[in-house]
Amino acid sequence: MIDLFTWSTPNGRKVSIMLEEIGLDYEVHAINITKGEQHDPKFLEIAPNNKIPVIVDRDNGLSLMESGAILQYLARKSGQFLPATDTDFWKMQEWLMFQMASVGPMFGQVHTFVRYGESKNVEASERYLKECHRLYGVMDNHLSDRNYFLGVNYSIVDIAIFPWIGRHDWQTVNLNDYPNVAKWYVDLAGRPAVQRGWNVPENDQVMPMP
Ligand SMILES: N[C@@H](CCC(=O)N[C@@H](CS)C(=O)NCC(=O)O)C(=O)O
After folding, report:
1. Nearest C-alpha to atom 17 of ligand 1 is from which residue?
2. How many angstroms does the Cα of residue 16 sit away from the middle of ligand 1?
3. Is residue 210 one of the residues assigned to a domain?
4. Model pLDDT for residues 124-182, shown as the tens digit of each residue
5. Using a 6 Å cutoff on CB, does residue 9 contact ligand 1?
6. Is residue 204 a part of any domain in this protein?
7. 78, 108, 135: which is the final residue of a domain?
8. What residue numbers bound the domain in which 146 lies?
9. Nearest CA-CA partner of 158 in 83, 64, 86
10. Which atom of ligand 1 is nearest to the CA of 11?
C-alpha cells in the first residue's frame, strides 16, 4: 500500500498515472497547494522541499519526494516499465532528466507568466514561451520515428511528460503544430489508467484534446 500526497498538477499526475498503470493499491491524501497546505509542518516531515508529490510506502516506511525518483521507485517495486537493457536504462535516464530539468521547469514558468500572469510581464512571457516551443520542437522531432520516447515501449518517460503536454491549452500551444507530439498525446490520453490518474485527487479539469 502506497500513501500518495498530491494535487491535480502535472507533477502530481505523473505519480497517480503511474500508480494506476501498475495497479498498486494506494490511498490519496490531497494537499491543496492553493491553500498553502504544502507548508504544514506535518507534511514537511516527509516533504522537505514543501512540494507535492510525495509517497510513503507502508511496506517499508520509506518516504520519497521528487516525481522522477518516485516513478523509478515504483517501476522497480512493481517490476513494470523497467528498461530491458543497459542502453535502454541510460536512454530512460536521459529523457527523464530532460523532463525534470527542462520540460517541467520551463513549462511551469509559462504557466506562471502566460496563464496566471496574463502575459503582463512581456519579457518573461516571451522568453519562457519561446523555450516552451523549442522544447515542443525537440519532442516532435524525437517522436517522428518512434511511438514512445524510448522507442517501441511505453515507459515512465511518457508518464512523466504526458501531464505537462496535458496543459498545452494553458501554454497557448496549438498541439497540431507538433503533429508527432499530438499523435503520441492522443494515444496516451486513450489509456484508461491515464484517464483515472488524471482525475487524482478528484477534479473537474477536462483533459484538453488537440
Ligand atoms: N521537481 C519536483 C517539483 C514538484 C513541484 O514543483 N510541485 C508543485 C506542484 S506541480 C508544488 O508542489 N508547488 C507548491 C509550491 O511550490 O509551493 C518534482 O518533480 O516532484
Report:
1. 51
2. 14
3. no
4. 999 999 999 999 999 999 999 999 999 999 999 999 999 999 999 999 999 999 999 99
5. yes
6. no
7. 78
8. 86-192
9. 83
10. 10
